[in-house]
Amino acid sequence: MTAALKQRKLQRHFELLDIDGNGFIEQSDLREFADRITEAAGAEGSPQSRALRTEADRLWQALQKTLDADGDQRVSRDEFISAADITQVMNEAVKLGKMSFDVIDSDQDGRISRQEWLRMDQKLGVAPADSEQGFQHLDMDGDGFVSKAEYAKGVEEFYRSDDPTAPGNWSFGKF
Ligand SMILES: [Ca+2]
Ligand SMILES: [Ca+2]
Ligand SMILES: [Ca+2]
Predict the structure, then answer these.
(1) How far is the CA of 160 from the centre of ligand 1 (A)?
(2) Which residues contact 49 (CB under 8 A, 6 or more apart)?
(3) Predicted local confidence at residue 158, as pLDDT
(4) How close is the Cα of 109 to the center of ligand 2, in Å?
(5) Taking the CB of residue 114, how many other CB atoms lie within 10 A of it?
(6) Model confidence at 172: pLDDT above 80
(7) Ligand number nearest to the C-alpha of 147
(8) Average pLDDT of the chain?
(9) Which of 40, 54, 127, 168 is an S-S bond match for 123, by CB 3.0 to 4.6 Å?
(10) What's the pLDDT tens digit per position in 5-14?
């Protein structure tokens, strides 16, 4: 991935994860992230939502271990953007992204409808127009739903693709 593309993705990712917008990613941000997805889907107390919370804690541990250079229990924007090797963080983030699917899919029909998608993004603070565009990018075959395969491909692309036009770059809103 080019340095510029990686920076852009990391900036986007930082903004998504710093839920309270205080300029640091903390464990509370990641828990809030998982909780908001759960709330959007009305899935409080479900096994899927508990698994999502556990994975959010795992991502936090990976972030802290790899990126919290000064050990103050929070990851600053600089620590996040300038990280040289974020393989482990990426791996956990991909897992978190994929596990989110099972929670977002609130009617459990194995695919994310436009309504399910927009509700999640609204909770995460993504602007409706950006959310709509994101849905259209991720619905790669245009059948009106984001399938599990489309979502998994999108999340993988966001974290790993070198292609600045990859649909998956839109997995988390405007790109
Ligand atoms: Ca924060
Ligand atoms: Ca569904
Ligand atoms: Ca589709």
Answers:
(1) 24
(2) 34, 37, 38, 41, 43, 103
(3) 86
(4) 5
(5) 15
(6) no
(7) 3
(8) 90
(9) 40
(10) 888 888 888 8
In a domain, 174, yes or no: no
- Residue 136 identity (one-letter amino acid): Q
Q: Which ligand is nearest to the CA of 144?
A: 3
Alpha helices (H) along the chain: 3-17, 27-41, 47-67, 77-81, 87-104, 114-124, 128-138, 148-160
Q: Which residue has the tokens 């409706």?
A: 128
CATH number of domain containing 98: 1.10.238.10
Q: Which domain holds residue 58?
A: 3-161
pTM: 0.84
175 lies in some domain: no
Cβ-based neighbour number of residue 139 at 10 Å? 21
Residue with tokens 């959007």: 40
Distance between Cα 163 and ligand 2 center (Å): 29
Give the pLDDT of residue 173.
Answer: 72
What is the tally of structural domains in the chain? 1
Within-domain flag for 167: no
Please report whether residue 169 resides in a domain.
no
Which residue carries 């040289």 as its tokens? 84
| 114 CA to centre of ligand 3 in angstroms | 10
